[in-house]
Write a structure and sequence with these properties.
Blueprint (H helix, E strand, L loop, with lengths): L1 E5 L6 H12 L3 E3 L1 H13 L7 H9 L14 H10 L3 H16 L4 E5 L2 H5 L5 E6 L2 H14 L6 H17 L12 E4 L5 H16 L2 H5 L1
Parallel strand pairs: 1-3, 1-4, 2-3, 4-5
Amino acid sequence: MIVAIDGPAASGKGTLGRRIAAHYGLPHLDSGLLYRAVALALIARGGDVHDASAATAVAQALDPQMLGDPALRGPAAGAGASVVSAVPEVRAALLDFQRRFAAEPPGAVIDGRDIGTVICPHAEAKIFVTAAPEERARRRALEFAGRGEPADEASILADILARDARDMGRAVAPLAQAADAVLLDTTTLNADQAFAAALAIVEARIGAPSRRAG
Ligand code: CDP
Ligand code: CDP
């Protein structure tokens, strides 16, 4: 079983992905970490995230061990990720890892921007999670504050809006709701309510008569 979760920045994809994966005993991949890792590795070696060929070389040599680095969660990695992720060769270099992760039995829960549209178009369940930008900025600010990091809500909102625009506007694998994805707006839901709603979506999909018959 593959569950694909897509949505804009700080919509709660990762949190939902982790909880759904734990519920079904499936491995979870936060695909955003791949793009964050490319950006961070590039910055660490003094490179420029706007240098497409340097970003491609880093993506092609990416060590998946890097995905555990806590620095990946910071805003610099997020902003850099949305620049390098617009480079088609960077996306191509990271495709194989994601497809192999999904293909491994017993399945996977993967969250990102293009999971339901490009990486796993045949996923059993697809959720497109969203929330109002102001609410997403509020959540991310709380998260940063909880880690003792600077958390200016206005600049977080500006970063989120810029990232959404870049992710939706790019030519290759833009952020978009797959035709067969179910929209989940969590603006007025807490994390537990969002999890319950997401679980109901997955259950409805995997329990659907057409699937049971097949
Ligand atoms: O992965 P993504 O950037 O989409 O979001 P996240 O890191 O999973 O979630 C951002 C923050 O929102 C986390 O601190 C969650 O606890 C919180 N949150 C949520 O995920 N869902 C809600 N309905 C309410 C809050
Ligand atoms: O957690 P948050 O939603 O803030 O970001 P993320 O999921 O870690 O993704 C960081 C950036 O990587 C996004 O803004 C996208 O540009 C890019 N990304 C992508 O292009 N495709 C994916 N499947 C996942 C992330």
